[in-house]
Amino acid sequence: MRIAPSLLAADFSRLRDEIARVEAGGAELLHLDVMDGHFVPNISFGVPVVAAIRPVTRLFLDTHLMITDPRRYAEPFVKAGADSITFHVEASPDPRSVIDHLRRLNVVVGVSLNPNTPVDALEGLLDLVDLVNVMTVEPGFGGQSFRPEMLPKVRDLAARLRPDQRLEVDGGVDAGTITAAAAAGADTFVAGTAVFAAHDPAKAIGDLRRAAESAREDRHA
Ligand code: DX5
Ligand code: ZN
């Protein structure tokens, strides 16, 4: 069970302190939402921000590219210090070539599915990736509500993935919604607002983890 606070919800004027807080609070990953104003109707941050935070944290930089041409921009993100690159299957006419390219860059490879994209879109690709990210909101903005109708997709993927592959849910995850996502089989939980808007982010991370773990125990019981 891994908690991945999304930097999108942090105070951008104090990134170093915000990152230190979630690192001390026990997060395993830092989720970086890169938006290009084209694949999604919003612009967030890019390579220079990844490069700036790399030296100030040991957290795994879980980099979510919500951009139109992931193949073109992957290498600069890896050079800047990204540990994983998750791209959208909808963003590429040839996702297989993006995966091959990422493999050559020696980075952890993730693929993401928009809410309206079925698991079938990963036909022939599922074996080739390290992580699948299931969007539980429409990508583009933090602070939206979790869409429970994505849970069957999570269950379906959980049944198909190998134990060494990770299943991440992204969007609207909080101490309430995380339970259903964990019970459905997700093991990695992106949480922006629920962590960074909390009065005590370290406590929020602990609460999320406990809720996920107890839901997972119930699932195996
Ligand atoms: C949405 C992003 C998410 C989002 C999560 O486009 O991919 O990572 O920022 O934020 P919350 O947890 O606030 O929904
Ligand atoms: Zn994300």
Short account of what is shown:
With 221 residues, the chain is an alpha/beta fold. 36% of the residues lie in helices and 19% in strands.
Q: What key attributes describe this structure?
A:
globular; 221 residues; single chain; binds zinc ion; 36% helix; 8-stranded parallel beta sheet; 8 strands; binds D-xylitol-5-phosphate; alpha/beta
Topology as a string of helices (H) and strands (E): EHEHEHEHEEHEHEHH
The total beta strand count reads 8
Shape: globular
Ligand names: D-xylitol-5-phosphate, zinc ion
What is the count of DSSP helices, taking H or I runs of 4+ residues?
8
Cα separation of the termini: 17 Å
Spatial strand order of the main sheet: 1-8-7-6-5-4-3-2
How large, in whole angstroms, is the Cα Rg? 16 Å
Main pleated-sheet profile: 8 strands, parallel
Return the structural class. alpha/beta
Low-pLDDT runs of 5+ residues are none
Helix percent reads 25-40%
Proportion of residues in extended strands: 15-25%
| Mean of residue pLDDT values | 98
Q: Which secondary structure elements does this structure contain, and how are they paired or packed?
A:
Blueprint: E1 2-5, H1 15-24, E2 29-35, H2 47-53, E3 60-66, H3 70-80, E4 84-88, H4 95-104, E5 108-113, E6 131-135, H5 151-160, E7 166-170, H6 177-184, E8 188-191, H7 193-196, H8 201-220
Parallel strand pairs: 1-8, 2-3, 3-4, 4-5, 5-6, 6-7, 7-8
Helix pairs in contact: 2-3, 3-4, 6-8
The structure holds D-xylitol-5-phosphate and zinc ion.
